[in-house]
Every structure is written in C-alpha cells, then in structure tokens.
Amino acid sequence: MVEWTDAERKAIASLWGKIDVAEIGPQALARLLIVYPWAQRYFKAFGDLSTNAAIMGNPKVAQHGKTVMGGLENAVKNLDNIKQTYAKLSVMHSEKLHVDPDNFRVLAECISLCVAAKFGPSVFTADAQEAWQKFLAVVVSALGRQYH
Amino acid sequence: MVKWTELERSTVKAIWEKVDIDEIGPQIWARVLIVYPWTERYFGSFGDLFTITAILKNDKVAAHGKVVLKALDKAVNNMDNMKRTYADLSQLHFQKLEVDPDSFRLLADCITITIACKLKSALSPQSQAIWQKFLYAVVDAMSSQYR
C-alpha cells in the first residue's frame, strides 16, 4: 500500500483546494490531444479535432476534461485506497473503451503542467510537485491495474 | 535525423530566450532531487541532501543546475546536430558517471514543469508540443552512446 507522509497529504489537499476543475480539466485534455495527437483516436465522437484551435474550442473536449479532472476528487478523498476506488473505472477503460494505459501517464503529465502553469513556482514548489506527481502516479497505476 | 520546421525552430528559441539559466537552473535541479529522490545517488559529494530545505539551500545543487542548463544551450544552437553535439557528454554519463539514462527523461520532465511555472499560459499547448519534441531529441542524443 502506498505510504503518504503528513506533508504529502497536506500538499495534495492544499493544491486540490486551489484547483478549479472546470478550468484545469479542459486545458489538460486539450493539451493531451494536441501534444499527443494519437490520443484523438478515442474521441472520434467529439466532432472537430482537426486543428489546435478546434480542439481548444471544442465543447465536448471541455466537458470531458471537467469530468476526468472531477474524477480525481475520489482519489483525493481516498488516498489510502486509490486502487480499489478506481477498480471499476480501470475495468471500463480496459474492457469497454480499450484505452492504452500509457495515455493515463501522459494525461497526468499534462495535468501537472497545467497546475504548474496556473500556480507558478511559489505555490507549485518542489515539495508540492513531489507530492502531486506521486499522487498522480498512484492514480495512473490504479487505472492500469485491471488491465490483463 | 530529427526534422525541424521553421515554426519549431523559432518556438524553441523563443522559449529558451525567456529562460534565465542562473534563476531556472538551480530550481530545476532541486526539483529533480526532490521529486525523484533516487537521483541523489549520483551526488554523494554534494553534502547535505537529507531534507527538502537542505536541497533548496545547497550551493552545489544550484551550481550544477546552471552547468546542466548551459549544456542545454548547446542543443538549442545545434538542433540539426544534436547526436554529435552530445556524443562526448553521452559517453561521459555512460562510462564514467554511470547514470541511468531514464534520469534524462526525469530531468526533461522537471525542465518542462519549471518552465511552465515561469511562462504560465505563454507555454501554449502548441509550444508545449514543440518544446517536448525538442527535449525528447536531447534525451535521445544523451542516451545515444549507451550500449
């Protein structure tokens, strides 16, 4: 089981408290689709993703970004039980959506970048980065856990 | 050889122009040691790295961050020739320093995060894509002499 120090728990809760899911989620998902364009294969139903501008203005991308980012709330509230919290989501992404689990890792990277860009070095300090990236690494691992 | 468009070249240069090596270098290096603490194994001679505060105050960490960023300057100025530019450095890291090449990827991650902190929304998604392509090429060049 993952061990969290008190400092890490505080850092994660503090960052989460400042994050506006409706702001960061859409940005992170748009960056995923722009920086790792092969990820667009999962979103054919989203309409126009043909240019960066189209992706950044696409309301379905924005909505889905909010959904995904909001889903992190479960992990924040269940730090000691992330694997079980995400078991069903993991099964769904594997068996129904057929998402390559490496996408979870690059999405996490985009999320971290958006958080860094939003808050700058005085809030997203080195120790905040450590706790946050450890947190996301655990989430990524839990989402990949049910793949066979 | 990696192909670069005019837009990619100018974007990399534009980002690099905003990077103050003396300011950013130490931050990046501290982040690597704090976020990926196993990398401390290479820096036994740097003194106190036992706490986050110690790492953030450590002069050798700061100095080394500047050294590494100065080396990145070479890549910005030799984008068409990165493998040759970094051949000696790659050899050094492989044979003498015995650095795990995955560390280069971790460093690239911290460089991007630190630059994002500094540039904020000016690091647009398109710029991010170009900057990460550039850093992957650097990581690749640094790994090129490993066998």
From TrEMBL, chain A:
<dbReference type="GO" id="GO:0005833">
    <property type="term" value="C:hemoglobin complex"/>
</dbReference>
<dbReference type="InterPro" id="IPR000971">
    <property type="entry name" value="Globin"/>
</dbReference>
<dbReference type="GO" id="GO:0004601">
    <property type="term" value="F:peroxidase activity"/>
</dbReference>
<keyword id="KW-0408">Iron</keyword>
<dbReference type="GO" id="GO:0005344">
    <property type="term" value="F:oxygen carrier activity"/>
</dbReference>
<keyword id="KW-0561">Oxygen transport</keyword>
<comment type="similarity">
    <text>Belongs to the globin family.</text>
</comment>
<comment type="subunit">
    <text>Heterotetramer of two alpha chains and two beta chains.</text>
</comment>
<keyword id="KW-0813">Transport</keyword>
<dbReference type="InterPro" id="IPR012292">
    <property type="entry name" value="Globin/Proto"/>
</dbReference>
<dbReference type="InterPro" id="IPR009050">
    <property type="entry name" value="Globin-like_sf"/>
</dbReference>
<dbReference type="GO" id="GO:0031838">
    <property type="term" value="C:haptoglobin-hemoglobin complex"/>
</dbReference>
<dbReference type="GO" id="GO:0072562">
    <property type="term" value="C:blood microparticle"/>
</dbReference>
<dbReference type="GO" id="GO:0019825">
    <property type="term" value="F:oxygen binding"/>
</dbReference>
<dbReference type="GO" id="GO:0046872">
    <property type="term" value="F:metal ion binding"/>
</dbReference>
<feature type="domain" description="Globin">
    <location>
        <begin position="3"/>
        <end position="148"/>
    </location>
</feature>
<keyword id="KW-0349">Heme</keyword>
<dbReference type="InterPro" id="IPR050056">
    <property type="entry name" value="Hemoglobin_oxygen_transport"/>
</dbReference>
<dbReference type="GO" id="GO:0031720">
    <property type="term" value="F:haptoglobin binding"/>
</dbReference>
<dbReference type="Pfam" id="PF00042">
    <property type="entry name" value="Globin"/>
</dbReference>
<dbReference type="GO" id="GO:0043177">
    <property type="term" value="F:organic acid binding"/>
</dbReference>
<comment type="function">
    <text>Involved in oxygen transport from gills to the various peripheral tissues.</text>
</comment>
TrEMBL record, chain B:
<dbReference type="GO" id="GO:0005833">
    <property type="term" value="C:hemoglobin complex"/>
</dbReference>
<keyword id="KW-0408">Iron</keyword>
<keyword id="KW-0349">Heme</keyword>
<keyword id="KW-0813">Transport</keyword>
<dbReference type="GO" id="GO:0020037">
    <property type="term" value="F:heme binding"/>
</dbReference>
<dbReference type="GO" id="GO:0004601">
    <property type="term" value="F:peroxidase activity"/>
</dbReference>
<dbReference type="InterPro" id="IPR000971">
    <property type="entry name" value="Globin"/>
</dbReference>
<dbReference type="InterPro" id="IPR002337">
    <property type="entry name" value="Hemoglobin_b"/>
</dbReference>
<feature type="domain" description="Globin">
    <location>
        <begin position="3"/>
        <end position="147"/>
    </location>
</feature>
<dbReference type="GO" id="GO:0031720">
    <property type="term" value="F:haptoglobin binding"/>
</dbReference>
<dbReference type="InterPro" id="IPR012292">
    <property type="entry name" value="Globin/Proto"/>
</dbReference>
<protein>
    <submittedName>
        <fullName>Hemoglobin, beta adult 2</fullName>
    </submittedName>
</protein>
<dbReference type="GO" id="GO:0072562">
    <property type="term" value="C:blood microparticle"/>
</dbReference>
<dbReference type="GO" id="GO:0005344">
    <property type="term" value="F:oxygen carrier activity"/>
</dbReference>
<keyword id="KW-0561">Oxygen transport</keyword>
<dbReference type="GO" id="GO:0046872">
    <property type="term" value="F:metal ion binding"/>
</dbReference>
<dbReference type="Pfam" id="PF00042">
    <property type="entry name" value="Globin"/>
</dbReference>
<comment type="similarity">
    <text>Belongs to the globin family.</text>
</comment>
<dbReference type="GO" id="GO:0019825">
    <property type="term" value="F:oxygen binding"/>
</dbReference>
<dbReference type="GO" id="GO:0042744">
    <property type="term" value="P:hydrogen peroxide catabolic process"/>
</dbReference>
<keyword id="KW-0479">Metal-binding</keyword>
<dbReference type="GO" id="GO:0043177">
    <property type="term" value="F:organic acid binding"/>
</dbReference>
